[in-house]
Amino acid sequence: MSRHKQKTAPGRNLRLADQILKDLAIIIQREIDMSRAGLITLSGIELSADYAHAKVYFTVLGAEPEQATRLLNEKAGWFHSLLFKLLHIHTVPTLHFYHDPQLKRGIQMSALIDQANLPGQYTGVPDEPLDKP
User: Fold this and answer.
1) Mean pLDDT across the stretch 98-108?
2) Has residue 122 got a pLDDT over 80?
3) Does residue 43 fall inside a structural domain?
4) What is the mean pLDDT of residues 24-34?
5) Residue at 26 is within a domain
6) pTM of the predicted protein model
7) Which of 46, 49, 132, 131 lies closest to 95, judged by CA?
8) How far apart are CA 120 and CA 122, in angstroms?
9) CATH no. for residue 108?
10) How far is 3 from 1, CA to CA, in rounded Å?
11) Count: domains in the chain
12) Which Pfam families match (predicted)?
């Protein structure tokens, strides 16, 4: 008898990732002291195809990202055991936390846009004619 890899339902991965993210956010809010790690917001999750590993992306305010990353990864085993009690699935993924720099990049881009939109920055008249002879 040969073993065949079963394909998962198309939306199952997304539903499971969403549920893990919701439950994990509640656990982190309850278990992590803000004075040590700052305000942590989970921004995304990537599950491996076999659900064995999860990359959890987060942003942090009020603490250094490296400090928050270290703390979250130290507590990953504890979070895993709490998730195992909440989720009714055979395999709860091993958690790996990564700081998501997108919030900082978004703030920088917003500042650049605001700077470009300052009054007097653009007159509506080009410096040179568009059609040169």
Assistant:
1) 82
2) no
3) yes
4) 91
5) yes
6) 0.71
7) 46
8) 6
9) 3.30.300.20
10) 7
11) 1
12) RBFA (PF02033)
The token pair that represents 112 in the structure block: 């650049």
- The residue segments making up the domain with residue 70 are 12-116
Residue 132 has pLDDT above 70, yes or no: no
Q: Which amino acid, 121? A: Q
End-to-end CA distance of the chain: 79
User: Which amino acid belongs to residue 60?
Assistant: V
Residue 17: pLDDT over 50: yes
Q: Write the secondary structure of the chain as one string of H (helix), E (strand) and C (coil).
A: CCCCCCCCCCCHHHHHHHHHHHHHHHHHHHHCCHHHHCEEEEEEEEECCCCCEEEEEEEEECCCHHHHHHHHHHCHHHHHHHHHHHCCCCCCCEEEEEECCHHHHHHHHHHHHHHHCCCCCCCCCCCCCCCCC
- What is the Cα–Cα distance from 21 to 57, expressed in whole angstroms? 10
The amino acid sitting at 49 is: A
Which of the four pLDDT bands, split at 50, 70 and 90, describes residue 4? very low
21 contact partners, CB below 8 Å, separation of at least 6: 42, 44, 45, 56
Overall average pLDDT of the 59-82 stretch: 93
